[in-house]
Prior knowledge:
Chain A is an alpha+beta fold. Chain A contains 15 helices and 18 strands.
Amino acid sequence: MDYEICIGLETHVQVKTRTKVFCACPTEFGAEPNSNVCPVCLGYPGSLPVINEEAIRKTVLAGMLVGAKIARYSKFDRKNYFYPDMPKNYQISQYDLPLVIGGTVEYDFGVVDKKRLGETKVCHLTRIHLEEDVGKNFHFERTSGVDFNRAGTPLMEIVSEPDLSSSDEAFAYLTALKEILIYGGISDCDMEKGQVRCDVNISVRPKGQKELGQKVEIKNMNTFSGVRHAIDYESQRQIETLRRGGKLVQETRRWDDVAGVTESMRTKEHAHDYRYFPEPDLLPMSLSDEWLAEVRKLVPELPSAKRKRMVERYGIPLYDAGVLSADAALADYFEAAAQASKNAKSVANWVCNDLLRDLAEAKLAIGESPVKPPHIAELVELVDSGKISSKIAKDVFVEMFKTGKEPAAIVAEKGWVQVSDTGAIVKFCDEVITANPKIVADFKAGKEVALNALTGQVMKLSKGKANPQAVRDALRGKLTG
Amino acid sequence: MSPDQQAPKIDVPYLAQLARISLNAEQVKTFGAQLQQIVSYVEKLKEVNVEGIEPTAHATPITNVFRPDEPRTPDDPAPFLKNAPQQANYLFVVPKIVE
């Protein structure tokens, strides 16, 4: 029997704010343990939380970016459980009235296989709600230590429908989601700082069956590749269990990255009775038309829309559009250069190849590039108008990157103007013809490629400055005339 | 019919487990009866006619109490750590956490 896999993801993303969601403690990463704490985020009795408006704004913006419905009335709830990383013994979260309802994320298979670039699918979202992150645990031999710096950091939970049917789809979805959130300035999505964590819900069912199979949850994945491997392992485990006639139980499992297996977590009975109730310390939110209109102004063009527009407007390949749109600042850079040029395709080449390579080598961000967008446009124009050869242009670019000077100034300074002047070229041609009687004879005997060798010689003599087409024409004229 | 019969049944041992407190049989009986009384009293609310009244999440008719995203200068964390039963290396030390 053939089985199909159904995957839904619960993605936790730290919202980029300066302060925590319910108190004014800074959210900086890597501070001395327990240095950014106060009575509120330590759960002292009598302390009262106050909602950080920016956290609400960014969560709503995330909802707008995925085309979701924004709740006009929303509230926070208490989720009750005991765990040392949660000092209040409850987490402030959202239960039945989340800020964001529905929405979709379009993902492209190009991130798992270059050949599938442009092949897209849509994953539906259930909801996005806002909650507070918990503290961080450190484990010692006989005890554990807790750092509450992270406790209270605004955390969005993005819940997807079980629309994903393979590890590749889950990976592509997460990549697209991350891109959207970075674009909107909602989160930096820095995996190494634990800003994105994922719970994977996975089940399998015989192909064609409508109802979902028994669901297994894999908790706390913090890399996208880990998610991919865990899904591959777990789906296979479930299918094999069913094929052997076994039964699957609803359970929570943990991914062991070293062993490459999922294993059951012995969660205590009743552990999931969270006894949610409305948070009495916080007043509900009712978002007005005016407030929402202000947030809507912050909505940027999304990467997938940008890619499509770039291909149409500038006639560049989808692959280049993908590279350029991966970072909003880079896309802006390219567009500034392309709009100043008649040859956007060539601009895309310079940016994707030479500029990105040199920036990576120099460890510079696009905003710090010594080469500015108009300089790229000017360089392309110098080549297209025949003022410099494309070979010389490479050297000009190296100088541009090194000095930040305009290409025309560099060309003038170095005397790299392409020689199209017939007098000078004829002189070089005569020299080469005299020095290479054998090649000349070959050409005269009908060996067309011999002309390349002669052209090369002339180019060398001109230190690359001669216009190759003019050289070929001059040589041909002399040898056949 | 007494109010006790109308009120939902309270599973006291389960409740104690959720609250991480241990009760002996005597306490289960005593607290059980007391809780039952409280819940029965709250049940009185069911007698109120709420026809046409919108459910609310809060009794105060105020919404949108927000704070700007401005960090405060952090307090000296030492007093917080001092309040902990045990601390080391700026961490709150707790019994070993097993997942």
